UniProtKB/TrEMBL annotation:
Residues 85-233 form the DUF305 domain. It comes from the Bacteria. InterPro entries: DUF305_CopM-like (IPR005183), Ferritin-like (IPR012347). PANTHER family: SLL0788 PROTEIN. This is DUF305 domain-containing protein. It holds the Pfam family DUF305.
């Protein structure tokens, strides 16, 4: 199952935004579970919950039928991935790789401890997501990199991708100047990732369960980080 193992969380800083993210991801399942529990406690004695019917896969001629596990049944319900999904995953791999390049400058150049902590969390989260995205491609028999595409030219057109000149400017900065540039560039970078998610759905992708789950995670998680970075930038400028 494709999901982020190291989700960046800003529990104390995000407030309502954090709660919105929780409700959009794991929180919804908690609310549903709680509602079911309350219904069970308050229902009458005649309210007996129905057992879920097993899903049986018919066997070929001469073969026995087979009862599917819940995991296998879920896979059957999920639409197959498409070329749009594959392009999105490959593009997001490149996008995450540049983000890690940017966070790699932080330990030796940043002056603000909050910027250092933020960058460390980003690097851990996006490194894990790179592994998950590469695994998703391999499990579906898709090359991790498109062998027929000039990816360097294509990457330059991705939303939120920094130019070589911008990366050089960031690498050359230090102290307060670096902190401001890093936050400004990373906000721009995150906004690009959210735009990529919107483009995925606009192109008819994101129907496969795992891609849909990942894309929604990217949108929610990076929106939270953008708000946090905007607060940090305002503090530095103030």
């Amino acid at each position: 199952m494709l999901r982020a193992h190291s989700t960046v969380r800003f529990e104390e800083e995000t407030g309502d935004d954090g709660m919105k993210w929780l409700a959009r991801t794991g929180g919804a399942a908690t609310v549903i579970a709680l509602a079911v529990g309350l219904a069970a406690c308050t229902g009458s004695e005649d309210d007996v919950p129905e057992a879920s019917a097993p899903i049986v896969q018919l066997g070929a001629p001469g073969e026995d039928n087979r009862t599917l596990s819940p995991e296998e049944a879920a896979e059957l319900a999920s639409p197959p991935h498409t070329a749009v999904d594959v392009d999105f995953v490959r593009d997001m791999l490149h996008h995450h790789t540049q983000a890690i390049q940017m966070t790699g400058y932080v330990p030796d150049r940043a002056g603000d401890e909050d910027v250092k902590l933020l960058a460390e969390r980003m690097e851990l989260s996006q490194t894990d997501e790179i592994v998950l995205l590469e695994t998703w491609l391999r499990e579906r028999g898709e090359p991790v990199r498109d062998p027929d595409a000039d990816h360097a030219d294509h990457a330059a057109d991705m939303p939120g991708i920094l130019t070589d000149a911008q990366l050089a400017q960031l690498e050359a900065a230090s102290g307060d100047e670096f902190d401001r540039l890093f936050l400004e560039f990373m906000i721009f970078h995150h906004q690009g990732a959210i735009e990529m998610v919107h483009d995925l759905y606009d192109a008819g992708g994101g129907l496969e369960t795992e891609i849909d789950r990942f894309a929604l995670h990217v949108e929610a998680d990076q929106d939270i980080e953008i708000k946090r970075m905007e607060q940090m930038l305002a503090s530095l400028n103030g």
